Amino acid sequence: MRYQATEEILECAEKGIEVTLKKGYFHRKLAIINREVIYEGSLNILSQSNSLEIMRRIKDEATTKEIHIFIVKIE
Question: Which end of the chain is more exposed for a tag (fewer CB within 10 A), N or C?
Answer without folding.
Answer: C
